[in-house]
Design a protein that fits this description.
It holds the Pfam family AcetylCoA_hydro. It catalyses: butanoate + acetyl-CoA = butanoyl-CoA + acetate. By secondary structure, this protein is α/β, with parallel strands linked by helices. It has 16 helices and 27 strands. It is globular.
């Protein structure tokens, strides 16, 4: 088979490719760094020809032209699997809807339930065997392609080659159209600087990590702070099993902490599903035989994690209540991010032999409207707040005031342990709340 010839027959312009999209279609933009640029612009230019084109995407790191072109949402209706700060802003303005999911289920949603008329997203250039690499976004890419009636690939030469793993590429025989983009630079995410409070929390967690542990870091400044502190620690022979590959792993690798040597699953390789961070991180991924790109229904499967000894999962949240319920994705009724894989890793870390799952957070925050300090530990979650992690799955909670192990604990034990790691200014108020709920023992004493 002459793959170069087949490539030429399927090569077209972005403007011609998007002509296949009809009013009422479901179009999939994929996730994060797989989202199209030239095709998005070309589709936006067809605004006056189309109505009710419904688009799925997620964790967008670039502004979307279809949204800029149609603030009334009559022509293009954008929906996101997980909000980036950009999509959070869109949602606040009524320009984006959230799609609830537990991340490991995303490929299954496509294969079992969803309609995809046109899938169009960015990939790395074709290799000599006719394969296009999904690069920095494996996640559910293959599942989307399997369900799509038409597949359009936008080639960006700046996307690195991510070795597998599984389902990390697609063959030219399975696609319909190819568009060569202008090879735009890849969006980057700057890691937030750790605060003194972050470092206090990170220090508590690092005491619980052993040599040869496998590390999962969630999205956010606090998990990244833990990763950076690991790089400065005496820990060694650590491994990677994560959904999101972030700069903290690169920092740990450069410090010689990552070897993947003692993993009993994917030995010698760090498993991940999508990547976002610095350009140096993207360069590290490129053809790195020590990394393995997997779909999200593998990396986030608690059954897979149960077979990984010493798995330590580290995630953050917005608020917790004294029953042990966690919201990591909403502030009241406002959607600010997404469920993502937090519950997946909370379950998986606990199932792992000698494994541990941490939810870490600063005990307080400053309310931007009032300027007052408020507690992230509350008696009741706000009305319409989404419970990301049910109380039945709570393991370790960590603040700068300490660590609470809640696994298997009664309601009064939970209340006691959670209030003990709250800021001292709010403990009496939380105790009164626990008394009203009938989950406080008068013999309890918190200093």
């Amino acid at each position: 088979m002459n793959f170069i010839q087949e490539y030429r027959t399927k090569l077209t312009t972005a403007e011609r490719a998007v002509k296949v999209i009809q009013s009422g279609d479901w179009v999939d933009y994929n996730f994060t760094l797989a989202q199209p640029v030239a095709l998005d612009k070309a589709l936006a230019a067809r605004k006056n020809e189309l109505v009710n084109v419904k688009v799925r995407g997620g964790f967008s790191l670039r502004p979307l032209e279809i949204v800029n072109a149609d603030h009334e949402r009559e022509h293009f209706f954008y929906n996101s699997w997980h909000f980036s700060p950009y999509e959070r802003n869109l949602s606040d303005r009524g320009l984006c809807n959230y799609i609830p999911m537990i991340y490991r289920n995303k490929p299954l949603f496509y294969r079992k339930s969803l309609e995809v008329d046109v899938a169009m997203f960015s990939v790395a250039p074709m290799d000599k065997h006719g394969y296009f690499n999904f690069s920095l976004t494996n996640s559910a890419s293959r599942a989307i392609c399997e369900k799509a009636k038409i597949i359009i690939l936008e080639v960006n030469e700046k996307l690195p080659i991510a070795l597998g793993g599984q389902e990390n590429c697609i063959h030219i025989s399975d696609i319909d159209y190819i568009v060569e983009s202008s090879n735009p630079d890849l969006p980057v995410i700057q890691s937030a600087e750790a605060t003194d409070t972050d470092r206090k929390i990170a220090k508590l967690i690092i005491k619980e990590i052993n040599n040869a542990s496998t590390i999962q870091l969630g999205v956010g400044g606090l998990p990244n702070a833990v990763g950076k502190m690991i790089a400065e620690s005496d820990l060694k022979d650590l491994a990677i099993h994560t959904e999101m590959l972030v700069d903290a792993y690169l920092i740990m690798a450069k410090a010689g902490k990552i070897t993947n040597r003692y993993k009993n699953v994917d030995k010698g390789k760090g498993a991940w599903a999508f990547c976002a961070g610095s350009q140096e991180l993207y360069d590290w991924v490129d053809r790195n035989s020590g990394l393995a790109s997997y779909p999200i229904d593998y990396t986030n499967d608690p059954n897979v994690m149960a077979n990984i000894d010493n798995l330590v999962t580290i995630n953050s949240c917005v608020e917790v209540d004294i029953l042990g319920q966690v919201t990591a994705e909403t502030s009241g009724s406002r959607q600010i991010s997404g469920t993502g894989g937090q519950l997946d890793f909370l379950n998986g870390g606990y199932l792992s032999k000698e494994g541990k799952s941490f939810i870490c957070f600063n005990s307080t925050f400053i309310d931007k409207k009032t300027g007052l300090m408020k507690s992230r530990i509350v008696v009741d979650l706000p009305t319409n707040a989404v419970v990301t992690d049910p109380r039945t799955q709570a393991h370790y909670f960590v603040t700068e005031w300490g660590m609470a192990n809640l696994a298997g604990r009664s309601t009064w034990e939970r209340a006691e342990r959670i209030i003990e790691i709250a800021h001292p200014n709010f403990r009496e108020e939380l105790i009164k709340g626990a008394e009203k709920l009938g989950i406080w023992r008068r013999s309890n004493k918190i200093s």
